[in-house]
Amino acid sequence: MNAIYPGTFDPVTNGHIDIAQRAAKMFSNLTIAVIKNPNKSTLFNSQERVKMIVESTKHIKNINVVEYSGLTVKFAKENNSEIIVRGLRITSDYEYESEMALVNRGMEESIETICLFSSLENQILSSSRVKEIASLGADITKLVPNNVSRPLLSKLKNKL
């Protein structure tokens, strides 16, 4: 069975990788789908985000990473994916993800959404929080894959 794990991943965090690793055990193929949305301001462009995720997941054989734009359910259907994987951290995630799952199901009944709870150590971890912590000069090495720290710090430095 094929699944997609969509997101912005700006930047990819250890929480994202945890969800991807666990989902990859559940499905024969997992596509990490990096949204390319010109209306959303990101620190990294979609190609940079794809590259970081590819490097961070190269040890997982049944994962591929692509960028996409448009509706997630349309992308899932075009890629023969029956499942959309989402990660849940805190209560507010549940409200957002349940609403999105219902909207997606309304557009395409054949595609299910499955939510995986974040590991305890990743419950408060988000890309936004990582960027904020990094911009304040704190150590982020335990929050992101090894290949993400240096480019993130460089981007933040150049942005200032």
Spell out the key features of this protein:
five-stranded parallel β-sheet; alpha/beta; Rossmann fold; globular; 160 residues
Describe the structure.
- With 160 residues, the chain is of the alpha/beta class.
- The chain has a single domain, classed as 3-Layer(aba) Sandwich (Rossmann fold), CATH 3.40.50.620.
- Strands 3-2-1-4-5 form a 5-stranded parallel beta sheet, sandwiched between helices.
- Helix 2 links the parallel strand 2 and strand 3.
- The mean pLDDT is 94.
Report mean pLDDT, rounded to a whole number: 94
Q: Any idea of the CATH class? A: Alpha Beta
Strand content: 15-25%
Helix/strand/pairing category:
alpha/beta
What order do the strands of the largest sheet run in, or round the barrel if closed? 3-2-1-4-5
Query: Mind telling me which CATH architecture this is?
Result: 3-Layer(aba) Sandwich
Overall body shape? globular
- Can you say what the CATH homologous superfamily is? HUPs
Q: What is the makeup of the main sheet?
A: 5 strands, parallel
Brief description of this entry?
With 160 residues, the protein is α/β, with parallel strands linked by helices. It has helices at residues 14-26, 46-56, 72-78, 91-107, 127-135, 146-159; strands at residues 2-7, 29-35, 63-68, 83-88, 112-117.
Topology:
Blueprint: E1 2-7, H1 14-26, E2 29-35, H2 46-56, E3 63-68, H3 72-78, E4 83-88, H4 91-107, E5 112-117, H5 127-135, H6 146-159
Parallel strand pairs: 1-2, 1-4, 2-3, 4-5
